[in-house]
Amino acid sequence: MKKEKPNPSAAVPIMDADAIRRGLRRIAHEIIEGNPALDKVVLAGIPSRGVEIAQRVAAFIREIEKIDIETGVIDVAMHRDDVGTRPELPVVHATKLPVPLEERTVIIVDDVLYTGRTARAAMDAINSFGRAARIQLAALIDRGHRELPIRPDYVGKNLPTATRERIQVRLLETDNEPDAVWLERES
Amino acid sequence: MAGKGILTARWTRKDLLGLRELSADEISFILETADAFKQVGTREIKKVPALRGKTLVNFFVEPSTRTRTSFELAAFRLSADVINISTATSSLTKGETLKDTARNLEALHADILVLRHGSAGAPQFLASRVKASVINAGDGAHEHPTQALLDLYTIRERRGKIADLNVAIIGDILFSRVARSNIFGLLKLGAHVTLVGPSTLVPREFEKLGVKVSYKIDDVLPKADVVNLLRIQHERQRREYFPGLGEYIRLFGLTKERAKLLKPDCLIMHPGPINRGVEIDSDVADGLQSVILDQVTNGLAVRMAVLYLCGGIAT
């Protein structure tokens, strides 16, 4: 988790706290429309910002529909396909999902959707708990450049990017900084 | 090789040789990683692809069932492939040196070597000579780091912390690698450690490590938050250290009567295999305060964490 402040000249603001709130609220509405049986839905976040985003979307659904939907945590670190090739080993977390999964729709929640490899690892993790009725994917930002046949069901903001650009997301709860999304160009 | 340079990430070691060389943060990081892997055991499919394609060699030059099995199962759950080599099947009996055996294993592209050896320092010797990760599964009377880690994990799980707890380690300390690794780990995490046993097996020299030494078990038990009973190793003892089992039981055995001195929430631990009726009474070993089987379950999670961390480091 990088904590350094953006260099103002190289950073392009993408979303502020208001825009993030509106994006997540729209995702909440779309989840409600897409899932008539909301009591079967689990919002499962990928640590650490995905977990916070799942909590916020669940709060919007509670506000709109007066229903408490289940939330969970999916660890993808131990399901990745690149262990031993990265300089830094990803930190593993405990996965928390309600079981049995058989009747449930699990919505994977992440901050940025990029290559799709994290989403693939998340599906692998979910499958080890049982056969979910459906798996869907929600992301605050979809920046493109998929390397796998994966597409999101719910997106806060579509953002065409170049591969040399980096998306930075900050959320108050996970980063202790004001909510913000910005774009950085690698020099 | 292991642990050179500054800790930029939280884990940078390819080897786990002992707890003496680890920082408190590194030990805590292994325990936290083990939390995540313990949860894998509760899934419908108890297997993750973290070490898929890696090869682990269980190289046990001394006999062991539970440690070897635990490492083997841990490797299976991480999707690694496992080869077991024991004394009987090893070319060491044909006079091959440890180094040559290891180099041969490496030529087969083994990624992780789990070594149990009768000589202290054997894992260190290998670790500095092979590219593979070396995990110490017990070397002589030196260290048995994964046993101590699973003991720490079990204490932390049951008591919520390790700092400031009074831990009594009872029995054959002199010959015990479990005791040494436990002492290093417990002290680093802030526990108070008291060693108890016959003076021949618990020499005062141990006080230099920062522990207390007592020869009166009945004074120690009432204050203990954890008692860790070590196995009396008949096979290692020479007669001059040890008068006889009957006297040991009378003076140091955790009998049913003696167990009444313990606080009701005191944990009773034993690394196994238990000598029922020697260091611990059968009823006590099976009683409510006993966490002996939790230790076995947690051993699997801790070993998964160690294999993941050491074996997952890019080399």
Produce a short descriptive summary.
Chain A is an alpha/beta fold. Chain A has four helices and eight strands. In chain A, helix 1 crosses helix 2.
Structure description:
The complex is a heterodimer of chains A (187) and B (315). With 187 residues, chain A is of the alpha/beta class. Chain A is built from four helices and eight strands. Chain A has helices spanning 17-34, 49-65, 117-127, 172-175; strands spanning 11-15, 41-45, 70-73, 105-113, 134-142, 154-158, 165-170, 180-185. Chain A has a five-stranded parallel β-sheet with strand order 3-2-4-5-6, sandwiched between helices. A three-stranded antiparallel β-sheet of chain A has the order 1-8-7. The radius of gyration of chain A is 16 Å and the shape is globular. Chain B has 315 residues and is an alpha/beta fold. Chain B contains eleven helices and nine strands. In chain B, the strands form two sheets. In chain B, strands 7-6-5-8-9 form a five-stranded parallel β-sheet. Chain B has a four-stranded parallel β-sheet with strand order 2-1-3-4. In chain B, β3 (112-117), α4 and β4 form a beta-alpha-beta unit. The longest helix of chain B is centred in the last third of the chain and has 21 residues, at 292-312. Chain B is globular. Chain B starts with 23 loop residues before the first helix and ends with a helix. The A-B interface holds A 75, 77-81, 83-89, 91-96, 99, 124-125, 127-130 and B 8-11, 33, 35-40, 43-52, 54, 78, 305, 308-309, 311-315.
Oligomer: heterodimer
Helix proportion range of chain A = 25-40%
Question: What overall geometry of chain B do the principal axes of the alpha carbons give?
Answer: globular
Radius of gyration of chain A, in Å, reads 16 Å
Count of helix runs of chain A: 4
What is the number of beta strands of chain B?
9
Number of DSSP-assigned strands of chain A? 8
The SS-based structural class of chain B is alpha/beta
Q: Compute the number of helices of chain B.
A: 11
The global form of chain A is globular
- The CA-CA distance between the termini of chain A, in Å, is 20 Å
